[in-house]
Amino acid sequence: MEANEIARTSDITIRVALDQDRVPIKIEWSASDMHPDGKLEECKAMAIALFDKEHRDTLRIDLWTKEMQVQEMDRFIYQTLRSLSQSYLRATQNKELAEEMARFAHHFGEKTAIVSK
Question: How far is residue 68's CA from residue 71's CA, in Å, rounded to a whole number?
Answer without folding.
Answer: 8
